[in-house]
């Protein structure tokens, strides 16, 4: 079993436990559930912002512990102050060391869109994302059928959440270009093997229709890479590790953005 299969297998157990602990009606009663959401697309296309979706990530299955002493407040407020277009917060606990509490805390601290970064396979998780104060969810093509991507993204839209569709190749893109998907992200990291190559974004770029904002995800740590990706039409950059491994992630973002202009 590859790592993605293991994560998804565990997700179903986690979802069953969470549904039993907190019924969906209770999620819908939470104070953040009806807040007006922020448009991820709008923030990503604001030229006054950097295009960076800056990620809060303590650990990952591929890198182990990235930063054991992170202070979430310093990280997310630093990202916002440095011009992040949005913030991505990992909420998966078992594999990434994130929590629901992380997203709730981030929501209370920043005013830019927040992506709930998790492995979404069930509508209940979208309800949770709404109740946590997220604005956008991630749907990963590598672990969903086109039919499920359609259903989950329509569900997200009904709750006023936008959708970042993650693909890793042109085949995954095909059949998933539906109206309720808002932004296309190309993951440079293969979630089954952990291989990282920026070439993935370059290869897939030409298959993405013009109407979508293009985001390149993972393994970005160098201004030259951003400059190269921009040439291929990318205006969004999802970056975690290279910021999180420093003791001042906001400053690292500011430096990378300044150098890639
Ligand atoms: O830390 P990096 O290499 O900058 O990558 C960030 C982000 O792209 C990565 O965390 C990610 C992209 N897609 C995912 C899906 C699940 C978990 C994590 C991810």
TrEMBL record:
GO terms for biological process: L-tryptophan biosynthetic process. The keyword Amino-acid biosynthesis applies. Gene3D superfamilies: Aldolase class I. SUPFAM superfamilies: Ribulose-phoshate binding barrel. Signal peptide: none annotated. Its EC number is 4.1.1.48. InterPro entries: Aldolase_TIM, Indole-3-glycerol_P_synth, Indole-3-glycerol_P_synth_dom, RibuloseP-bd_barrel. Keywords: Amino-acid biosynthesis, Aromatic amino acid biosynthesis, Decarboxylase, Lyase, Tryptophan biosynthesis. Transmembrane segments: none annotated. Pathway: Amino-acid biosynthesis; L-tryptophan biosynthesis; L-tryptophan from chorismate: step 4/5. It catalyses: 1-(2-carboxyphenylamino)-1-deoxy-D-ribulose 5-phosphate + H(+) = (1S,2R)-1-C-(indol-3-yl)glycerol 3-phosphate + CO2 + H2O. CDD domains: IGPS (cd00331). It is an enzyme of class 4 (lyase). Residues 4-256 form the Indole-3-glycerol phosphate synthase domain. The keyword Transferase does not apply. GO terms for molecular function: indole-3-glycerol-phosphate synthase activity; phosphoribosylanthranilate isomerase activity. Belongs to the TrpC family. NCBIfam families: PRK00278.2-4. This is Indole-3-glycerol phosphate synthase. It comes from Cytophaga hutchinsonii (strain ATCC 33406 / DSM 1761 / CIP 103989 / NBRC 15051 / NCIMB 9469 / D465). The gene is trpC.
């Amino acid at each position: 079993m590859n790592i993605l299969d293991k994560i998804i297998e565990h997700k179903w157990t986690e979802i069953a436990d969470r549904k039993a602990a907190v019924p969906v009606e209770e999620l819908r009663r939470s104070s953040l559930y009806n807040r007006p959401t922020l448009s991820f697309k709008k923030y990503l296309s604001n030229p006054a912002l950097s295009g960076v979706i800056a990620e809060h990530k303590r650990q990952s299955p591929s890198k182990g512990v990235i930063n054991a002493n992170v202070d979430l407040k310093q990280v997310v407020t630093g990202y916002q102050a440095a011009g992040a277009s949005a913030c991505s917060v990992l909420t998966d606990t078992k594999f990434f060391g994130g929590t629901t509490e992380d997203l709730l805390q981030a929501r209370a601290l920043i005013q830019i869109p927040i992506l709930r970064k998790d492995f979404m396979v069930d509508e209940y998780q979208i309800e949770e994302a709404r109740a946590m104060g997220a604005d956008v969810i991630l749907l990963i093509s590598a672990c969903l059928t086109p039919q499920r991507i359609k259903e989950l993204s329509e569900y997200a839209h009904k709750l006023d959440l936008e959708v970042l569709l993650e693909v890793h190749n042109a085949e995954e893109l095909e059949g998933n270009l539906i109206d309720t998907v808002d932004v296309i992200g190309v993951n440079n990291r293969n979630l089954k093997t952990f291989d990282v190559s920026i070439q993935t974004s370059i290869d897939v770029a030409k298959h993405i229709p013009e109407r979508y904002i293009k985001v390149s995800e993972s393994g970005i740590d160098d201004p030259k890479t951003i400059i190269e990706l921009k040439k291929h039409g990318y205006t969004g950059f999802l970056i975690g590790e290279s910021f999180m491994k420093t003791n001042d992630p906001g400053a690292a973002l500011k430096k990378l953005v300044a150098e890639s202009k």
